[in-house]
């Protein structure tokens, strides 16, 4: 543990930071290490001046080597979570600023480099059903160092969740700075912190709805046996929630309102309208609005590394002078974040707000094609090819938003489907790392490249591809998607809206297919050889017999001629 002064450059593989700052500070910490790994930075404790706001005091985190890099987020006095930030490369920067109030601010953080491919067993997941159990990794043995696990719990609607730790043993600290469990009142870590625990706590926690998130984060030392937990769902009292739902995909938004719910408010489908009144429901029982993300008056906004599509359904009485009906306003949002889509619905009935959330993701696919026209996809799996054959690959974003651009940032190959060692770079940071790779210019929702088939040494028969894909706003001329191959130093200044990856394979050589089925063709060849040999023997015997007959005939003829030429007559007696 160090007490660094106002900012520094850090190259350690992992480090704990205990920071104290006074008034009017502006300090920058840069974390960088030449590596193929990314960085996870966790602020497990922070104490700002009591009177401060996010405008006057904060920790701002950037995805790169400087404060000009893409903005990841901030921590301030009203932050209600244990903030966790992850870089997209091997560099991360954070800036701490304080106001003029005389007060000693305290911050505790730790960071470590890690590989996205590394997985810990029993670490996180999506838990559903009315009740269930889960444990920390290795329980009841000590949990691994640098563990970061997230469990999303979702029970039936119209219920809340009761979480109980039957056994709990983490490193003890009064502020839970080293190893901790954080519980959130929703399906994300931004949905409000219910509690943060460590040591020997066996506390009970309760959500306000049918969703809860539990996070386990540990540092590098003093591991203990972890925890065993169980959850149960409890029915919510009071009137039933409106029977509504929102579904977001990368192409469409669909809103469902039950007819019985509208009946209780005295409305029908004819009273409802979107931002664009010309967009009408596709069904009336239940009432369903289904439309492309960029139509019907939907408003698109950009917030950091996310894109949000917002529309509003309004219902109000028409005609007359007075009304006793409730006015309702339904605000629907599809928020496209990294690797997921957060769907949010707010229903206001005379200023009473209820909300509903769900999880989805962008629809991105990757396929091989038979030629550079990219018109005929290859459906064969495994894909058998010749060594050094040119292969054509395309990444496709399935979205109705015409203002999105696809960019292939990195592609690696591996003989293993889990992309363990060894791996081979085809594309890295938009730069072609293999001499045979040719990338095509970005084309709206498509990213394309070609390369020549190869194989790994040491008798590996398969090749798998995994590509990191960035999605940008095509109206942003300075986005990462428009910059092509750039150096690591310049990469930090570029921006993108969304990031995911796609996997393709396996690719195998045609000769491997032949060797895999070698025994069957050999059997067929031997079966074919037997009749051929019999047929050959028959023809040979016939030829020998015919030749012998010819020789006999010729011999008889010759004998006959000789007898006539040198004939003899009996001597007649005198």
TrEMBL record:
<dbReference type="InterPro" id="IPR055355">
    <property type="entry name" value="ZP-C"/>
</dbReference>
<dbReference type="InterPro" id="IPR055356">
    <property type="entry name" value="ZP-N"/>
</dbReference>
<feature type="transmembrane region" description="Helical">
    <location>
        <begin position="536"/>
        <end position="558"/>
    </location>
</feature>
<keyword id="KW-1133">Transmembrane helix</keyword>
<feature type="domain" description="ZP">
    <location>
        <begin position="247"/>
        <end position="488"/>
    </location>
</feature>
<keyword id="KW-0812">Transmembrane</keyword>
<protein>
    <submittedName>
        <fullName>CUZD1 protein</fullName>
    </submittedName>
</protein>
<dbReference type="InterPro" id="IPR000859">
    <property type="entry name" value="CUB_dom"/>
</dbReference>
<keyword id="KW-0677">Repeat</keyword>
<dbReference type="InterPro" id="IPR001507">
    <property type="entry name" value="ZP_dom"/>
</dbReference>
<feature type="domain" description="CUB">
    <location>
        <begin position="6"/>
        <end position="114"/>
    </location>
</feature>
<dbReference type="Pfam" id="PF00100">
    <property type="entry name" value="Zona_pellucida"/>
</dbReference>
<keyword id="KW-0325">Glycoprotein</keyword>
<dbReference type="Pfam" id="PF00431">
    <property type="entry name" value="CUB"/>
</dbReference>
<keyword id="KW-0472">Membrane</keyword>
<keyword id="KW-1015">Disulfide bond</keyword>
<keyword id="KW-0732">Signal</keyword>
<feature type="domain" description="CUB">
    <location>
        <begin position="123"/>
        <end position="234"/>
    </location>
</feature>
<dbReference type="InterPro" id="IPR035914">
    <property type="entry name" value="Sperma_CUB_dom_sf"/>
</dbReference>
<dbReference type="Pfam" id="PF23344">
    <property type="entry name" value="ZP-N"/>
</dbReference>
<dbReference type="InterPro" id="IPR042235">
    <property type="entry name" value="ZP-C_dom"/>
</dbReference>
């Amino acid at each position: 543990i160090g007490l660094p002064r106002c900012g520094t450059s850090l190259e350690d593989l992992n480090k704990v930071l205990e920071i104290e700052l006074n008034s009017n500070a502006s300090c920058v910490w840069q974390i960088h290490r030449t590596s193929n790994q990314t960085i996870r930075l966790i602020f497990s404790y922070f104490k700002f001046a009591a009177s401060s706001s996010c405008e006057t005091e904060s920790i701002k985190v950037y995805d790169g080597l400087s404060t000009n890099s893409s903005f990841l987020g901030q921590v301030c006095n009203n932050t209600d979570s244990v903030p966790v930030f992850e870089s997209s490369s091997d560099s991360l920067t954070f800036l701490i600023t304080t106001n003029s109030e005389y007060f000693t601010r305290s911050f505790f953080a730790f960071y470590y480099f890690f590989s996205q491919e590394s997985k810990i067993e029993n670490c996180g997941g999506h838990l559903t059903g009315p009740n269930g159990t889960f444990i920390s990794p290795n329980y009841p043995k000590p949990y691994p160092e640098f563990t970061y696990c997230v469990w999303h719990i979702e029970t039936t609607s119209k219920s809340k969740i009761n979480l109980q730790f039957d056994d709990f043993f983490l490193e003890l600290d009064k502020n839970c700075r080293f190893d901790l469990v954080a519980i959130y009142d929703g399906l994300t870590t931004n949905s409000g912190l219910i509690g943060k625990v460590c040591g020997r706590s066996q506390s009970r926690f309760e959500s306000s709805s049918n969703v809860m998130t539990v996070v386990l984060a540990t540092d590098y030392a003093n591991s203990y046996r972890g925890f065993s937990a169980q959850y149960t769902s409890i029915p919510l009292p009071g009137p039933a929630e409106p029977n509504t739902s929102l579904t977001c995909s990368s192409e469409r938004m669909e809103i469902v309102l039950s007819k019985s719910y509208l009946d209780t408010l005295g409305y029908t489908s004819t009273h409802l309208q979107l931002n664009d009144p010309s967009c009408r429901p596709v069904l009336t029982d239940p009432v369903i609005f289904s439309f492309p993300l960029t139509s019907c008056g939907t408003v698109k906004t950009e917030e950091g590394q996310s894109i949000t599509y917002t529309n509003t359904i309004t219902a109000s009485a028409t005609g007359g002078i007075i009304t006793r009906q409730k006015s309702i306003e339904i605000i629907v949002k599809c928020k496209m974040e990294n690797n997921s889509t957060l769907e949010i619905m707010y229903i206001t009935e005379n200023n009473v707000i209820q909300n509903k959330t769900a999880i989805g993701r962008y629809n991105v696919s990757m396929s091989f094609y038979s030629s550079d026209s990219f018109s005929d996809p290859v459906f064969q799996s495994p894909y058998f090819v010749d060594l050094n054959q040119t292969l054509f690959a395309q990444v496709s974003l399935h979205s109705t938003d015409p203002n999105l651009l696809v960019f292939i940032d990195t592609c690696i190959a591996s003989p293993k489907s889990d992309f363990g060692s060894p791996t081979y770079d085809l594309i890295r940071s938009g730069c072609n790392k293999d001499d045979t790779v040719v990338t095509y210019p970005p084309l709206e929702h498509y990213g394309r490249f070609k390369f020549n088939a190869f194989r790994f040494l040491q008798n590996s028969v398969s090749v798998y591809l995994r590509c990191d894909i960035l999605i940008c706003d095509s109206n942003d001329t300075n986005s990462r998607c428009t910059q092509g191959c750039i150096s690591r130093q310049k990469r930090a200044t570029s921006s993108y809206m969304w990031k995911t990856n796609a996997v393709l394979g396996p690719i195998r050589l045609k000769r491997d297919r032949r060797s895999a089925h070698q025994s069957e063709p050999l059997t067929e060849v031997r079966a074919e050889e037997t009749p051929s040999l019999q047929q050959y023997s028959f023809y040979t015997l016939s030829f020998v017999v015919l030749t012998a007959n010819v020789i006999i005939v010729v011999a008889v003829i010759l004998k006959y001629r000789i007898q006539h030429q040198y004939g003899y007559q009996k001597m007649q007696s005198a």
